[in-house]
Amino acid sequence: MPQELLVLTAQDVKRALPMERAISACEEAYAAYSAGEAVVPLRTQIPVPHYEGVSVFMPAHLPVAGSTALKVVSVYPRNPERGLPTIMGMVVLLDATTGAPLALLEGGYLTALRTGAAAGAAARHLAPAGARVAALFGAGVQGRTQVLALAAVRPLEEVRVFDPVPGRAQALAADLGAELPGVRWVFPDEPREAVQGAEVVITATTSSTPVFPGDALAPGTHVSAIGSFTPTMQEIDETTVLRADKLVVDSREAVLVEAGDIIIPMQRGAITPDRIFAEVGEIVRGRKPGRERPDEITVYKAVGLAVLDAAAAAAAYRGAAELGLGTRVRLM
Ligand SMILES: NC(=O)c1ccc[n+]([C@@H]2O[C@H](COP(=O)([O-])OP(=O)(O)OC[C@H]3O[C@@H](n4cnc5c(N)ncnc54)[C@H](O)[C@@H]3O)[C@@H](O)[C@H]2O)c1
Predict the structure, then answer these.
(1) Which residues pair with 201 in a beta bridge?
(2) Are 175 and 104 members of one domain?
(3) Which end of the chain lies in a sparser environment, N or C, as judged by fewer CB atoms within 10 Å?
(4) 75 lines ligand 1 (CB under 6 A)
(5) Residue 302 Cβ contacting ligand 1 at under 6 Å
(6) How far is the CA of 279 from the centre of ligand 1 (A)?
């Protein structure tokens, strides 16, 4: 039997996996993860200090999607100075029934898509049902898919975009304008102004220090924090964490090792691990409630799970096969 590998570019992935389908795939992956129905070995990191970068190897097996996948992703924060994205990578998808390599997918867009879709899945259960106004901190690659995912689950009318680098917020609005014609774009001068009156606040930055003051959050706000991914990075402040009626995470195990947003307040003695209300997957499965009251402040903190890559890669592979997308390479 000939062995074939399907190679999918970022454009192929974009066409093969629309946001709504990506959200459903991530919701299913979160549920399987929290029910112990996925195999997720610890990710391996190889720091490359000379270039201030890190390459991360993230394997996962997700039976519900019939997939085993390995994502290799590099995070090089100084890449934008070289005209390159901060995050680049690829995903190898295997057929879980035979172990055969099925596909090689561009990983940068897939990561942004699944990170947005996972936050969209969380917002479906936690954000106010009629949320129309959102604030976005960080007008980078993740910021774009964060807004697209939120718009897929809530009737967004206004997005306030804040980014300290001049022109970035406006560039994001120009990029997304055609896809989200009903959205009004606002560019606040300072973080407090962006947050006041926002029903959803998204942080998708590379900042190591809190990007908005938690006392500015109105009751009923949903905060979606996806940027920080090391114990020393803190994008949302202690006030935000303390004001959360429900602090919901992608993985208890992962955030307690990687998320400075939670680890730093813990080290200061302000919170204990039981402050975490639930994993998103527990809410998806109905084991814990999502939003119960209009005035609840909900916070979703995610550091990223390999099961999301396995789920998104499998869904993109299926979509590409249906549409005849990608390039087939004969391996044997
Ligand atoms: N949770 C996950 O699953 C997940 C997945 C992918 C990336 N990430 C993380 O998300 C972060 C953003 O990634 P990206 O690919 O969008 O990077 P990016 O470089 O494309 O964009 C980051 C943006 O944040 C802006 N920024 C920095 N400090 C800010 C501040 N104080 N306020 C507002 N904006 C600020 C930068 O100017 C930049 O425009 C990174 O830290 C990345 O590692 C998390």
Answers:
(1) 135, 223
(2) no
(3) N
(4) yes
(5) yes
(6) 23
Same domain, 62 and 172: no
Query: Same domain, yes or no, for 252 and 317?
Result: no
**What pLDDT score does 135 carry?**
98
Same domain, 228 and 171: yes
Q: Residue 73: which domain range?
A: 4-111+307-330
Q: What is the pLDDT of residues 89-136, one digit of tens each?
A: 999 999 999 999 999 999 999 999 999 999 999 999 999 999 999 999
Which three-class secondary structure state does DSSP give residue 216? helix
Cβ of 300 closer than 6 Å to ligand 1, yes or no, is no
**Which pTM was predicted?**
0.96
CA of 67 to the centre of ligand 1 (A): 28
For the domain that residue 154 is a member of, what is the CATH number? Answer: 3.40.50.720
Residue 312 and residue 295: Cα distance in Å, rounded?
A: 33
b/e code 5-39 from CB counts within 10 Å (16+ = b)? bbebeeebbbebbebebbbbbbbbbbbbbbeeebe
For residue 323, the domain's CATH number is 3.30.1780.10
Cβ–ligand 1 contact at 146 (below 6 Å) = no
Alpha helices for 244-284 (secondary structure H) = 252-258, 260-267, 280-284
> Token pair for residue 296?
């609840």
Q: For 314, phi and psi rounded to 5 degrees?
A: -65, -40
